[in-house]
Amino acid sequence: MKLRILTAVALAAGVLVTSVAYAQQPAAPAAPPDLNAVPDKMPFNIPFGTPIGLDKAQSLIQAGIAEANKRGWPEDFAVVDVGGNLVAFARMDGAALASIAIAEHKARTAARYRRPTHAFEDAVQKFGFNYILTLDDVIASRGGIPLIEDGKIIGAIGCSGATGAQDELLCMTAAGTNK
Q: In this predicted model, what pLDDT tens digit does every residue of 117-171 receive, in sequence order?
């Protein structure tokens, strides 16, 4: 009798665990875009404009620092021109030293490829397009965004030192696109 009760309890526990595990299965990933599809328009075809100047670059960094200070996030900020050349940089006290190069890399990638670095992160993480990592000077980590003025790219800003979501939020706030 005891064996039957133990068997019934074990069976019930197994069914319960299996049903809970099944209920917690993640949704199937989104289907990747068709790489053979030919778009009607060139994606990310934003024209380049007059490169960002030092005063504007420094004011963007100051806006980013103000937001980072409010949140207690020590960060590194880099602003580059349309060619990916460094125009202004700031490292907050306590920011990670490794993030110096990463902030500049994010900005350079966003400017040269005319898209946020989040697009590369999505390509690799969501769709498994690992070939993206073979492209010259790409960083597949959010926190780099192009700076657009009058419909033209004037440069880009890169932020690094926290999570990708935090870096991206600071870049968007600095650029005035986080409304």
A: 999 999 999 999 999 999 999 999 999 999 999 999 999 999 999 999 999 999 9
8 A C-beta contact, residue 84 and residue 95: no
Report residue 34 as tokens: 């068709």
- Answer yes or no: are the C-beta atoms of 174 and 157 closer than 8 Å: yes
Show me where the domains of the chain are located: 54-175
- Beta-strand runs (E) in 8-165: 76-80, 86-91, 144-149, 152-160
Are 79 and 57 within 8 A, CB to CB? yes
CB 61 within 8 A of CB 90: yes
Domain 54-175, CATH number (from 3.10.20.340, 3.30.450.150, 3.40.50.300, 3.30.300.20)? 3.30.450.150
3-state SS assignment for residue 55: helix
142 and 134 in contact (C-beta within 8 Å)? no
Q: In what order do the strands lie in the sheet with 152-160?
A: 86-91, 76-80, 152-160, 144-149
| Cα 67 from chain centroid (whole Å) | 18
